[in-house]
From TrEMBL:
This is CUGbinding protein LYLQ isoform, putative. The keyword Transmembrane helix does not apply. Residues 1-21 are annotated as: Disordered. GO terms for molecular function: mRNA binding. GO terms for biological process: negative regulation of gene expression; positive regulation of signal transduction. InterPro entries: Euk_RNA-bind_prot, Nucleotide-bd_a/b_plait_sf, RBD_domain_sf, RRM_dom. It comes from the Eukaryota.
Length: 106
């Protein structure tokens, strides 16, 4: 039996944070109805998540259709990119890439 089956449904970690360099991902083209728990459940199979956050427009309360996930290990982030980049959810094709630090040029 999997740990998730023992503990119940996968739930996002309470604290939001970042993993080590190379373990933080930017996900866009999320379906508008996606919340933190949806993002978490889609990315949890690839490794231990530190955080999963969908960004919400404060003025409207609507999803901005992008978010971030952070893993505890860079290898998990690499696997998530390989498996989830281009994955189709609710008619949207996800785009998954490494999160850029503020110091990195675009």
């Amino acid at each position: 039996m999997s740990p998730q089956a023992v503990m119940g449904a996968a739930q996002p970690p309470a604290a939001q944070g970042e993993g080590p360099p190379g373990a933080n991902l930017f996900i866009y083209h999320l379906p508008p109805h996606f919340g933190d728990s949806d993002l978490y459940s889609h990315f949890a199979p690839y490794g231990q998540l530190v955080s999963a956050k969908v960004f919400i427009d404060k003025a409207t309360g609507q999803s901005k259709c992008f978010g971030f996930v952070s893993y505890s290990m860079p290898a998990a982030a690499e696997m998530a990119i390989q498996q989830m980049n281009g994955f189709q959810v609710a008619g949207k094709r996800l785009r998954v890439q490494h999160k850029r630090s503020r110091a990195q040029p675009y």
